[in-house]
Fold this protein.
Amino acid sequence: MRPLKIVVLIKQVPDTRNVGPDAMKPDGTVNRGKLDTVFNPDDLHALELALNLKDRIPGTEVTVMTMGPRRAADIIRDSLYRGADHGIMISDKRFGGADTLATSYTLVRAIQKLPSYDIIMGGRQAIDGDTAQVGPQCAEKLGVPQVTYVEGIISITDDEVVAKRRLSKGVETVSSPLPCLITVHGASPACRSKVAKRIMQYKYARTNSEIRPNDGFIKELHSKRPYLTIPEWGVEDIDADETKIGLSGSPTKVKSVESIVLTANEAKVLSDSDLDIETMIKELIDHHIIG
Amino acid sequence: MKSVFVYCEVENQKIAEISQELLSTGKKLATKLGCPLEAMVFGSQLAGIQGQISLYGVDRIFVADDIRLEPYRTLPHSSIATHVLKQEEPQIVLFGATSVGRDLAPRLASALNCGLTADTTILDIGDHFVKKEKKEYKDLLYAIRPAFGGSIMANIINWDQHPQMATVREGVMKKEVFDENYTSEIVEVDVNSIVKDEDFVVKIIERHIVESDVNLKEAPIIVAGGYGVGSRENFERLEELANLIGGEVGGSRAAVDAGFIDHNRQIGQTGTTVRPKLYIAAGISGAIQHTAGMQDASMIISINNDPEAPINSLADYVIHGDLGVVIPKMIKFYKANAK
């Protein structure tokens, strides 16, 4: 079959799975500095699904794309180490503060700059917001069908993909014409590891804004090996309408946040002695909680 | 006055639980706003479906009845919903945070160019002063949801790009009948004039829906285990206790991840939200992800050998001890004392 062009949308996120007590400031806002950043877990699953198609179909190219601050180039390098062919960084201060609507607009403007695509992939959701909205919003803007919650690709031909979806209450197998957008569920296979040879090859991959003026060695390397330069696109590069990006393009706004404080309770503290447990069981029965 | 709209999920002529929860919540919001409550339901063989919807106090029901609309597929549902919402211009639209609602709502939000808040757990009406415009916006939707792994609750508003849309987590809102005899006006949607052939390009080849026999939401008593339970075998002790006292067994995310208990029994932010009259937390430390899904239980018993476990601060009874000792004793003394 013909080679495919696959774009994987990836995101660098604060590691909300390990929120410690110091991750919250006294005023109840999130102290992002105290949270490590990670490659969004579902996006790694999406990358694996894309790389798997690349293994199956010779000539297929996988491009990862992320919108974020400068340091998010880390996950582009990570993807290159695991087998992605290209990475594109979408970064501009004016993109900041975007909600899912503004984010999908921005990503779609960037996708439309590419010569062609067959499948757009992304993780089902990102662990910082858990919204699962950006995928379907991009699909609508691109005018392509969406297949959400995919846990595996059953088959693929030149113009159709058959995928298995994981639903709240079961599974479903659907076919969709190409091009389409697929969001990938965490139940799909985990992403392959980084490859030592590829780490050697791409460890100096940088966006231009990551290269400091005195990095003569890296500059020279990039002029010899242009594939090391990760393209970095700002507002003008993707011809974005400034009223549709960042904070101004975001209809949803955070009015307030409140940190969750567990309210202390007057608990009866018991031991595991026969007396304590029998007393408790009797109280529960007497109060018709059980029995 | 612009209405509050609820997208109702239907399968085999049955309106989903979550949609009934949404209608109940939608009625409260509509009452506060003094506006009508409206519903849309798209499926197949829907004659008489209003019998399951009107009683929540719904003023108008938009019914799209066509064999091609069931089971749910994104594109036809999205075309019809976009058409109805553009025509009716409601101020608020609610969806379940299910695999259907979370697939459909963002596609609609993009088509309507409006705001959407995911996975809300509290909805309310309130005002907001926009400093930049020096203007007070009245009667906005407060879409409140946990964020950052459940460590904060964020109140999300949208004052300028309506409708205000939200998906709502299953099992959080209470289902409450408004009036058994309420009558709704039925508006039949002309499906053929709205959908196009391209809306049916995605085809469902195979489908297995498991009607879960686990009903944690309705269980009056839940015995839940965490990672501290240690093994699948130890979970059988919890099951024995649960069966004895008329409850269900549940687990924390850590216990599910460790394979001690099945995914459909997970309680917490990423599982089911429960509010039983008794919740027994065995070997659960009480990460916010978990407590967000059970803190409304009427009574909580925490069994833990860590006196500092965060869940203890929610509990009515804290038992310091080993599960291997405490659970068998609870079984023994229940058998001895039950009437």
User: Anything to note?
Assistant: Chain B touches chain A through 88 residues (CB under 8 Å). Chain B has two domains: 4-200, 221-337. The CA atoms of residues 241 and 330 of chain B lie 8 Å apart. Residues 221-337 of chain B form a domain with the Rossmann fold fold (CATH 3.40.50.1220).
